[in-house]
Amino acid sequence: MTKTIAQWDMFEVELTGPSEGNPFVDVTLAAEFRQGGRVVRVPGFYDGAGVYKVRFMPDNPGAWSFVTRSNIAGLDGQTGTVEVTAPRAGNHGPVQVANRFHFAHADGTPFLSFGTTCYAWTHQPLSEQQKTLGTLKKARFNKIRMGIFPKDYPYNVNEPLHDIYQRGADGELDFDRPNPEAFRHFESQVAALGELGIQADIIMLHPYDRWGYSGMSEEQDYRYFAYATARLAAYHNVWWALANEYDFMLDTKPMRQWDRYFHIIEENDPYGHLRSIHNGDPKANYDHRKAWVSHVCIQHWDVKRTLEWRAAYGKPVVNDEPEYEGNITEAWGNISAEELVNRFWTTTLRGGYAGHGETFRHPDDLIWWAKGGELRGEAWKRIGFMRDLLEEDARNGFEPIETGMRFAGRVSAARDGDTTIIYLGEHQPEIWPYGLPKDDGGYQVDVIDTWAMTVTPAERVPAPENHPVRHGAVVLKTEPDAAFAVKLPVKPYLAIRVRKK
Amino acid sequence: MTKTIAQWDMFEVELTGPSEGNPFVDVTLAAEFRQGGRVVRVPGFYDGAGVYKVRFMPDNPGAWSFVTRSNIAGLDGQTGTVEVTAPRAGNHGPVQVANRFHFAHADGTPFLSFGTTCYAWTHQPLSEQQKTLGTLKKARFNKIRMGIFPKDYPYNVNEPLHDIYQRGADGELDFDRPNPEAFRHFESQVAALGELGIQADIIMLHPYDRWGYSGMSEEQDYRYFAYATARLAAYHNVWWALANEYDFMLDTKPMRQWDRYFHIIEENDPYGHLRSIHNGDPKANYDHRKAWVSHVCIQHWDVKRTLEWRAAYGKPVVNDEPEYEGNITEAWGNISAEELVNRFWTTTLRGGYAGHGETFRHPDDLIWWAKGGELRGEAWKRIGFMRDLLEEDARNGFEPIETGMRFAGRVSAARDGDTTIIYLGEHQPEIWPYGLPKDDGGYQVDVIDTWAMTVTPAERVPAPENHPVRHGAVVLKTEPDAAFAVKLPVKPYLAIRVRKK
């Protein structure tokens, strides 16, 4: 019987095999999916209780056949077919790098990353997890950073819903035996996010651990990466984040290990989902130029430097921690909503992508950044407004532009197609002429109040006279030529949008 | 007859000589001032109408003698004596570099630079200049950037009070003949600033010119530097700023010329007043490591980088343009008062010094940054509060400290002697433990609201538990050890001051 699924959905082959010994280590399993002469090698995995699975995400419609490969006779040489239809509405396929510094879904739909962070939300009580999904449904985030392992950290000390590895007879975690139940639960939430159109930016390792996961051996780590990749790669909305703050583990996991983790993902993810790695110390960025890194993940508060990171790495820049809205003790988690929204606009209008987090103290430690649940701040709505607004004009990605030497780097400006947006941030001029059209016809010009979430047709006023600057034989100009200027209320966090009609 | 003056005041030798030909070019004049075996060579200058002067600022009390040297017989070999008494109250002597990254007066009094900018204030109508001095008397700035030449720039187009060079019979400026009247006026205002305890940071050249001063020949420039130095060096409160935005003149004044300007100042200023040079493009900093540069002058908005500039140049860092409070069109002149004050605190608590400017549009273009007059903003009061507050504890200069890896660079903190100040800037935690004492005895701890200008004894609360971070064999700590934390109102721009009692 041929099963029918939609393109970029998941097709699962289920097989029965041995449960004795340690199948996680002893049994190899893969399948070769074919369409014409093309072969896609897909790793399988042991799901416990004698059940083996191979998961496949077809990237092309039509008929596919498969044959399994295993070191166990009963699992080897199994065959079948699958008929792939057009994608379901809303499934645009995995997100990939597009136009060097940007992202797009596989079907070409631009993906402007507006991420948030809930490190351990899948480890909270199920009612809390439902709340998180409900919140995500109303918020406009399209990416979420979340760990496979639970987290032990201030404000974040409750026991997880599941052990990620099985416990032996001695009650100790056995890091040679993953706990399929934990993975199945995690995957169900990845799938739920997929239904909401949200990318699961899956954090593989982190140092904030009291259970021992961060202390697994090199070999155990490698097996963990292969296992998790085999289980998760067929979800269309997966991104691989090798770590949260990898550099705080360099003493026990040296750099060659991090490189190898990337390789193992590449070996086991036939779809080439996005891969990156996140730093703690701002001076300890991984070398994102390495070929196996798809995009830059960074933690840095000084978002005006986004252009430097683009230049240094030549890849999309995602600043997942430009600090978080909140009031906790830690300095990475206590900036105002205004400042976080400001950092989003500054980052994006310099050609990068920013990430949200929320860290308000709570009597029961119910903090979004770790546990999900409810959003209590003010930034998320403005970030949603920003996403909706930018998506109206997104084509190839907003590329940063210079609007005149005299203020290079002071304000942020970017263009996508015929739309230019100039974000003034902390600057609050009465009128603004820079980067505006040199002619007065055929433009729609709006003033955007990024905090109040309003878009207002701009009041045009004469551009200031172009005052010559003389020195020696050379005449500089103090103003770029502009056909008009825009009158502004004197307040921070404004943007000017110019569209060609 | 022996004249008596106080140390660091100015002693002037006046001589009569030829007025025919071009004495500015033809006549050489200097004096050797002696005290015991020590000789200080002091250049003289022509003051017009056959009058020649040599100005001397003694740096040591007691008897000094002098003899003049000239290529004109009547000006050569003139001798005299001067008796130098202890300094007048309030004259602490010229400001010099102290403790590598800081400044102090010659008598050892720490000088924490709190500068402002009024580029062309000495070129405004005299009534406006009086207003400027009145404003400076009530404000707490102790340095002012001001140009010898007038300025032609948007909002800044009126004719100057004096031509800086004389006009010939054809009405054209003769760049071989300085106008002594203009210099005498300029000097009178330098002296007036000296009486107010304010350093005159004298800008020698700039590109914003419609009269031709910026187009003088190389030789004329060199003579100008020698002449101005001979006239001005004996004022105790002089700093030399070779340019405003020197890099915008590099096409006609190449780098070797800028180096030579420094040398000419060194040759003609026997007191070694501070010397620096100011950039326009943030990427075009002069190489402040050069031996003849006393301190770093910089224009940059990204003040959290102050540590980088200290490291790059190893000298005091003065960021004279961290952008200005105002609402003009230009992006360097339209940040809020809150943001400018924030940049002052951030800069200073990272071991640098910031500069103020005010650029509010005005119907008559009366803008402090160019013309002086009245302050209309809100930053200057807070900067005065900041100066008074820091001077209470200043000994060797506030040196930046790290208060824990987890937020290195996020907040600003510095220590001078037994006083530590932690400036939180945009961070607004409910409680703060980092960088606080490890024991609970003998400290006075205050919370400073840098905007409201209040100092309040801190409410101490238990420090958060030191949550261990486990990974592998290593135990990291999330919090530095602190004996207590400080409870804070959740708002930006707070600082915590810890004094050893």
TrEMBL record, chains A, B:
Residues 5-71 form the DUF5060 domain. Residues 99-356 form the Apiosidase-like catalytic domain. InterPro entries: Apiosidase-like_cat_dom, DUF5060, DUF5605, GH, Ig-like_fold. Pfam families: Apiosidase, DUF5060, DUF5605. It comes from the Bacteria. Residues 414-499 form the DUF5605 domain. PANTHER family: DUF4038 DOMAIN-CONTAINING PROTEIN, LMO1036 PROTEIN. This is DUF5060 domain-containing protein.
